[in-house]
Structure formats: C-alpha cells, structure tokens
Fold:
Amino acid sequence: MKTTSTILVMAAFVAAEAAAQSPATCPAALPQGTECWQGKDDNGSYYWIARPRDWNGVLVMHSHGGPRTAAPKPDSEVEDLDRFAVIVKEGFAIAAPSYREGGYVGIAAAAEDTENLRRIYVARFGAPRRTIAHGQSWGGGVAAHLIERYGTAPDGKPQYDGAMLTSGLVAGNAVGYDFRADLRAVYQHYCRNHPRPDEAQYPLWAGLPTGSTMTSRELERRIDECTGVHTPAEKRTAGQQRNLRNILAVIRIPEGSLVGHVNWATFLFRDIVAKRLGGRNPFTNAGVRYAGSDDDDALNKAVQRFTADPEAAAKFAADGKLTGKVTLPVVTMHAIDDPIVFVEQDSTYRAKLEAGGSADRLVQTWTRESVHSYLQSPEYAALLEALMRWIEAGEKPSAKSIAAACEKHARRYEGGCRFDVDYRPRPLEERQYPR
Structure:
C-alpha cells in the first residue's frame, strides 16, 4: 500500500515531468491544426501527445507492440502516431509512451509507463472527459493488464472508461511465446545453422549467447541459406524447398512471417532469458509431439528438447498475468489470418474473462485479412464509435452493428470493411502445441 508521502512524491515527479514536455511538429499524417507535444518521464520512457483542433474530450492511451529490441529514442512514437492517425482524425487525443527501455521491458512495466503518461497528461492539461486504453499487438497484452491494474483509482473512481485491443497478444506469456520456442527447435533440426556445428553450442531456449555479435541481417542470410525464403520459389534447391515446407507445416505459420518469428525467437529470447530471468529457461517442449512434416517420427526423435526452470517459468508467466476481472467495456479486432499473433489467442482471452465473471464486458470482432500491424482505417473508426456509444449510452455493440457502422466510415476512409460477423476462432491449443 502506498503511503501519503509516497503518493505526494509521485505526484511531484509527474508534475515535474509534465512541465518538462515541449511542443513538437506533428507527424504529417495527422489532420491540420493538431497540436503535438513530446517529453520523457522519470523512468526513461519517451512519449508523444497529439490533440486535434476539434477535440472530442476523449484521450486514447496507446500501448505499442513489439516488444521493440532497439533502445527507445525521442521520436520512437512518431511511427505509431502516423500509423494510427485515424484515431486523431476521429477527434480523439492520443498519448503514446516508448516504454522505459528496449527489448522485453515486461508487460507490467510497460503498463506502468502508459499509466504514468496518463497522469502526466492530466497534470499538464487537466482530466479528459473520457479515457480509453488502446493496445496493438504485444501492446494488446499491455493494455489488457493496464485496465485490470489501473482501471480504477484507489478511491474507487474510474481512471479508464473503455479499452480497444487490436491484433492483441492477449493469451499471456505462459503460452504466448511457446510456438516460437518450438520454432527454434524445429528450425535447428532441419537447418543446423543456428548455431552451426563448428560454432559454440548453446541451448536454443536462450536465443543467443550474451556475447554473440550476430546481427539480424546475418540471421536472415542463414534462414535464406537453409530455406530459400528470400529466393524465388522456382530457384530454390530441393533441400531448401523441403526444409521450408516442413518448418512452415509443423509450426503452422505462413512463409512471409518466418524470418520475423525466428528473429524474435533469437534476439527477444536472449533479452528475456539473460536480462529478465538471470539466464534461466522459461520454455519447455518436453512431451510435445510435432506433426505435419514429411517424417514426424524422425523429427520427434531427433529434435532438441528442453525443460523449463520452474521459477523462471513462473516469473515469466506472472508478468502482466490477467485475472479476467474487468470493470469497463472492451472491444477487440483481429485479422483472421494474422501472420504474427495467432487469432486463436482471442479464444484464450475470452475464456479468461469468462472465468473472471467479465464476459459481458467484452465484444470481439474479426476481419478477413492477413495482416498484423494495421488493418483498415474504417474498421478502427467503427470500433471507436461503437466503444464510445457503449461507454456513454450503454448500448453494447455486436459484431454485426460494428460491421454496419464500418460501411458508413468506408465512405470517408480508404480501405473498406472486411468484418466476418460469423467467424469464431478455435481454441489456441488447436493452433499451437499445448504443454
């Protein structure tokens, strides 16, 4: 429990951080007349704030995806303001933190950075009429944790009024990263070049040894060497074709996302293991039966196996762990063929809220798209409209009503509407191998 003196010290820090922010030139994608500010909080998280000329009084707190392995910079969030310009075009202010450091900063720490920015905003500009949490990709998990932990102030007053989770990694660390651990093992079985036989060997769950100088470009060369993923299909060798076909079939990912997933299972895993878990292993593939290759028996007999350290696994799973207890409206949107975050994670999130007695606070939508980082602008506009009507008028939307609203916004924005109102994702255990 925070003491009065601690709260006063925190308030003083927030006030000082708010005073230290400076006006900035807005990204070009934002509407004319928008005002922008940038700053850095006491934890080292850079941030940007954008508020349109015709502001509707609602603040959107944006939690970005990743986690980004590079160290944050003053302009880190310009990309997000550009990408989600539709939020500002719809009349909302947006505030986006970079988080305090690069790599796997942790869900709880990222949520704290987002909440700290909300407090900075209030100290500088006053309380907005409403506050919405928006989480994209890994930021979906951050925002889901944010509304559970900070949704209500200690005095019982709401600090957030609603949440919008898009392309969200919302299944939690306990299962959200398992398929990438599987990928490292299966990739190495077929490719044997990460590490190569003549290089220092290390457990695959570690990602990379801490002293490794490997770059992402070198990793891409190795992946292409083994699979021909950057080579025209007709020019791939028979061995490359076999390796690529087997890896994709067993891990159940599309070809275009292979390099990205191996990259995360390398550099992000190194960060998780070395910096967050003291070199201990949070992953296991013991007992997993891989399937889909041209010789499953040979694969399962020879693939590298590893067992998690119980304390490391528990610590990793506990970071940002959800209770399923939500007190405010939540709407989600996810592409059915998302190549980065499996759409089946939405089933896990719904089950979590059902177990927590909060299922009535959740409306989920899905679109017939195969993208991750940004869907269609009319779809985001429809989601925001539906969420605000739910918050302010008590009109809970449905997938059908959101799809209908999208058609109206499609007359104002490019991109169209791809909602599938009848779709329901399968359990996550049917997409990736359960433990």
